[in-house]
Design brief:
It is built from 17 helices and 21 strands. With 504 residues, it is α/β, with parallel strands linked by helices.
Length: 504
């Protein structure tokens, strides 16, 4: 795993005597990147100094609402100057990756509210001018925070609501503005049921980030202690249960989210340093002998790294064998992003059977409950490849599933189900309409309305020859899934409703 702590206060006095030890423990717990957050002018300067000392640390510049009353007019030019801080080796990226933490705090009211608002607005304007993302502190001030954000920044904002504590409705408002939601130690507290329910109901994992807010808000098992970045593993355990994903899934996705928002460098080449345990690649720090684990290769664009052929979600291994598809469903995730659960699935070319087999772990039958042909296209466009891979996997009696649009027969111009018998265990067929005209409207099949009857033909044949068949329907706005459920019953297959805008 590679984990990013998107909100820490490493410049605070609580870390004055043992920062190197704190960072070493972070490394041992896979926290490979930390953003230390400024709270006033002096704190921002200290954060930048840390970013220049440690290449895995990034800084932000900001005036916390508690400190708003202390801002003098002559500080604003200095504040703006800090936003253009020197670059930090080895990444070559700016030390300062965001403006924050900024916002409103009506819980403690340590600064007058009108002063808080004024300082907040000035910092938002600077963020807009310097094209920096923002880190929002919003405590019992949701209405005013959101109103000011919309007023100053418009409808699309690059930023994160840090240490979120609001309702599901407030979370959705922040998300609608294009922002991320970040959770801290309270997500682990026994009395935080409402927070967990809110996160589960309103925050897609693709919009979530992790933070400690250290030295504050230690997770439940560390309550009463000084919080520190290494404790993020406790958050991950709780979130894995909440989202029903693996801990590795949570780490990978939230790391990618942090990379996208802050532009942090988590994929540069690192010097290899032996750890003594697993020989994992490490990044040498400038000072104190500190080292950081190298993250997995993540693709922020389509060009930089090797293409993803196999990828894991939960305890299933997915095979991404094509990006081609015979449908253009209006809701398909491929129109909006290259990523599924933190994996970039955009292929540069279609891998051969040999390349796919080489990418499958030798212990696949031990590590995973099933192998799934899915990816970013219609797998049955490569039927011969599917059969090659299945024959290889069946040597270890691997359970195999195909996620398909059901076009296999019309693609091959023959009935293909019998060819899959003994090779494929489960077939999941996407069916998002119950008659031909609506099907073509929703799915835009290249075969026209004739595709609908061919899909039904495929489902019936699969039911006859394969062990398990289900149809799935995306719960799009305005769609009643009950008729689909009843239709599946008439066909004698199982039914599964898929959440709109959620893949994987």
């Amino acid at each position: 795993m590679f984990i990013v702590d998107t909100h820490a206060h490493l410049d605070f006095p609580e870390f004055k005597d043992d920062l190197d030890a704190v960072l070493k423990r972070a490394q041992e717990h896979n926290v490979g990147c930390i953003i230390t957050v400024g709270t006033d002018l002096d704190s921002s300067r200290r954060a930048i100094a840390l970013a220049k000392r440690y290449p895995h640390i990034y800084a932000t510049v900001g005036i916390h609402p508690h400190s708003a009353k202390n801002v003098t007019p002559d500080q604003w030019p200095e504040f703006a100057k800090l936003l253009q801080s020197d670059k930090v080796a080895p990444s070559g990226l700016p030390s300062v990756v965001a403006i924050g933490e900024i916002g409103l705090d009506y819980h403690k009211d340590m600064s007058p509210r009108d002063v808080q608002k004024d300082v907040f607005i000035r910092q938002l304007k600077l963020a807009k001018e310097h094209k920096k993302p923002i880190i929002i502190h919003d405590r019992e001030a949701h209405s005013d925070c959101l109103a000011i954000l919309k007023q100053v920044m418009g409808n699309q904002i690059r930023g994160v609501a840090h240490c979120f504590s609001g309702s599901a409705e407030v979370a959705r408002e922040y998300l609608a503005l294009g922002m991320y939601i970040s959770v801290a130690g309270p997500i682990t507290y026994p009395n935080a049921t409402a927070l967990r329910d809110t996160v589960k109901a309103a925050v897609p994992i693709e919009s979530l980030m992790l933070e400690t807010d250290c030295p504050f808000l230690a997770p439940q098992s560390m309550r009463g202690k000084r919080n520190e970045p290494s404790y993020l593993t406790h958050h991950i355990k709780e979130l894995a249960k909440l989202y029903k994903l693996s801990e590795a899934d949570i780490a990978r996705i939230t790391t990618l989210n942090a990379q996208h928002l802050f532009g942090i460098d988590i994929s540069h080449k690192c010097d290899e340093v032996k750890t003594g345990k697993n020989n994992s690649p490490l990044l040498k720090g400038d000072k104190g002998g500190y080292t950081t684990p190298q993250p997995p290769l993540l693709r922020g664009s389509r060009a930089n790294y090797h293409q993803t052929i196999t990828y894991a979600i939960r305890n299933s291994l997915y095979l991404n064998i094509t990006n081609r598809c015979t449908c253009k469903c209006y809701f398909c995730v491929t129109h909006f992003t290259d990523f599924v659960k933190g994996h970039n699935l955009r292929l540069d070319n279609e891998p051969s059977s040999d390349e796919i087999i080489a990418a499958i772990p030798a212990d696949v039958h031990i590590k995973y409950k099933e192998v799934v042909f899915c990816g970013y296209g219609e797998p049955t466009l490569r039927l011969d490849v599917i059969k090659d891979i299945c024959r290889h996997l069946k040597k270890n009696d691997m359970t195999i599933r195909i996620n398909t649009n059901g076009h296999a027969n019309i693609i091959a111009n023959r009935s293909v189900v019998r060819e899959l018998k003994g090779l494929v265990d489960n077939v999941s067929v996407s069916l998002n309409a119950l008659e031909a005209k609506e099907y073509q409207k929703v799915c835009q099949s290249q075969f026209g309305e004739a595709a609908f009857d061919k899909v039904l033909e495929f489902i019936k044949e699969a039911k006859e020859h394969l062990p398990y068949v289900e149809i799935t329907t995306v719960m799009r706005p305005g769609v009643d899934v009950k008729p689909f459920q009843e239709f599946a019953g008439k066909l004698g297959v199982d039914f599964r409703a898929r959440i709109y805008n959620e893949v994987g």
